[in-house]
């Protein structure tokens, strides 16, 4: 089985600040680092490090070969990443404060120029039962979801960064939806439906420090978060998503998938960075909380 991830690839620039800047405020950063990121890349790395065959569908600019190399090092199948000569790699400028909270500014770059032929070529290799994963940092989600549904793939969608129109367009094709509390409220306002009544088999609402809630066929179950002191919350949700879907790809029951993903996300927030520091399965299994 495989997870095909239509997702973003970014160069993440981290600026460490005493607090998140307010309107009109200028702050001096104490440090700056560059790393691999993008919600798509983070989820592909998480899925690969959790033991899945993660095939990334995406694009970088001519300045992004290092990012493709990093994905390959982490075990991601990078054959379906296109290099574009006339577009920069996506970028994220991330401010992280002393308690681990962050604010992020994105430049879409090549993430909004993934050729349709790249997507088609990737999904031509997929088999029934494989997973298609998408987020909102790329384009062509409804068209790709429809192709995946016609191919009998399990269609998964992380509704972030949230856009009501984008989310509404893919809802008819989804088997799996993951979003946070704020996004769930925004989606309910846009559709007039609660998460339980969307007609999606599996819905997970992440609750931050309160854990996560799984909605399945009219039933709801809460999973508590692990007790940790966060250093950096960037990428924790992406790590959770990648681990859930990788565990499901190994045919684990969803309860076990979520419990494993909770551990991975808890370990992730104790580390500084994004894709470069996503824990592998050995780290997660050996962690003590």
Q: Features of this protein?
A:
single chain, 289 residues, alpha/beta, UDP-N-acetylmuramoyl-L-alanine:D-glutamate ligase, 9-stranded mixed β-sheet
Give a brief description.
This protein has 289 residues and is an alpha/beta fold.
- Give the overall pLDDT as a whole number: 95
Largest sheet: 9 strands, mixed
- State the helicity in percent bands: 25-40%
Radius of gyration: 18 Å
CATH homologous superfamily?
Answer: Ribokinase
Q: What is the tally of beta strands?
A: 13
Count up the domains.
1
User: Strand arrangement, largest sheet?
Assistant: 5-4-1-8-9-10-11-12-13
Explain this structure.
By secondary structure, the chain is of the alpha/beta class. It has a single domain, classed as UDP-N-acetylmuramoyl-L-alanine:D-glutamate ligase (3-Layer(aba) Sandwich), CATH 3.40.1190.20. The protein contains 9 helices and 13 strands. A 9-stranded mixed sheet has the order 5-4-1-8-9-10-11-12-13, sandwiched between helices. Strands 3-2-6-7 form a 4-stranded mixed sheet. Strand 12 (212-216) and strand 13 (219-223) form a beta hairpin. The radius of gyration is 18 Å and the shape is globular. The two termini are 31 Å apart.
Fold blueprint:
Blueprint: E1 3-6, E2 10-16, E3 31-37, H1 39-49, E4 54-61, H2 65-73, E5 77-84, E6 90-96, E7 102-107, H3 116-123, E8 131-134, H4 141-150, E9 154-158, H5 164-170, E10 176-180, H6 181-191, E11 202-206, E12 212-216, E13 219-223, H7 236-249, H8 254-268, H9 281-286
Parallel strand pairs: 1-4, 1-8, 2-6, 4-5, 8-9, 9-10, 10-11
Antiparallel strand pairs: 2-3, 6-7, 11-12, 12-13
């Amino acid at each position: 089985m495989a997870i095909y991830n239509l997702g973003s690839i970014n160069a993440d620039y981290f600026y460490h600040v005493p607090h998140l800047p307010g309107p009109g405020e200028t702050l001096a950063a104490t440090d700056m680092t560059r790393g691999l990121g993008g919600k798509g890349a983070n989820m592909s790395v998480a899925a690969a490090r959790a033991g899945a065959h993660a095939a990334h569908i995406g694009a970088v600019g001519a300045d992004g070969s290092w990012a493709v190399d990093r994905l390959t090092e982490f075990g991601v199948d990078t054959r379906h990443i296109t290099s574009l000569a006339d577009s920069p790699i996506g970028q994220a400028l991330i401010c992280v404060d002393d308690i681990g909270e962050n604010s992020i500014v994105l430049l879409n770059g090549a993430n909004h120029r993934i050729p349709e032929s790249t997507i088609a070529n990737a999904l031509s290799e997929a088999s029934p039962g494989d997973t298609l994963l998408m987020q909102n940092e790329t384009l062509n989600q409804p068209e790709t979801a429809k192709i995946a549904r016609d191919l009998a793939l399990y269609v998964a969608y992380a509704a972030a960064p949230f856009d009501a129109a984008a989310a509404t367009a893919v809802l008819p094709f989804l088997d799996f939806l993951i979003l946070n509390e704020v996004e769930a409220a925004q989606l309910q306002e846009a559709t007039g439906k609660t998460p339980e009544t969307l007609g999606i088999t599996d819905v997970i609402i992440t609750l931050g420090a309160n854990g996560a809630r799984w909605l399945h066929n009219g039933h709801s179950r809460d999973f508590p978060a692990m007790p940790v002191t966060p250093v950096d919350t960037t990428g924790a949700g992406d790590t959770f998503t990648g681990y859930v879907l990788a565990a499901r790809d190994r045919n684990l029951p969803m309860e076990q998938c979520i419990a494993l993903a909770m551990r991975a996300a808890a370990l992730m927030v104790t580390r500084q960075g994004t894709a470069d520091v996503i824990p592998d399965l050995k780290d997660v299994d050996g962690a003590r909380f």
